[in-house]
Amino acid sequence: MPLKIVKDAAMKTTHLNIRILMIIGILFFQHFSALADNGLTDKERLIKLETKVDEGFKSINKRHDDLKNQIQDMKEQMQKMNADLKNDMRDMNADLKNDMRNMYSDLSSFMYWGFGLTFTFVFGGMISIVGFILWDRRTFIKPLADDIEEVKNEQTLIKDIIISFANQNDRMAKFSQQLGIQPA
What we know:
Elements: H1 2-38, H2 42-168, H3 170-179
C-alpha cells in the first residue's frame, strides 16, 4: 500500500507539471496577443510579460512546495505505519511464542498425566490379576485340601474296618494281606 501512495504521488506530480506547462503556454500566447493590441512598447510588453511569468513561476513554486510537503507528510505517515506494523508484528510474534510455549506445556502435562494413568492402570491391573490368581488359588486349594483330608479320614476308617474284620475272619485276613494291610 505505501508503494501505491508513492506511485500515485509521482503520477500527480507529473500530471501537475504537464498542466502547469500548458497553462504557462496558454497564458504566454494570450499575453502576447493582448500586448500587441494595447499599443504598448516592447519594453512595457516585456516588463508586463516578465511580471506575469514571475507570478506564474511563483504559483508553480508554491504548488511545487505544497506537493513536496504532501510527499513529505506521506513519507512520515508511511514511516509511522511501518514502525507501527513492526511493533504489531513484534507483539504478534511474542504472543505467538507465548501461545506456543503454553501449548507445549499443556501438551507435555497432558502426556505426563496420560502416560502416568496408563502405567498406573496397566501395572495396577497386573497386580490385581496376580492377587486375584493367588486368592483364587488359595480358595481353590482349600476345598481341595479339605476333600483330600476327608478322603484320608475315610481311607483310615475303611482300613480300620478291614483290620477289624480281618481279626474276626481268616478269609478277610488273607484279603487284607493281599491289599497290603496288616492286621494288628
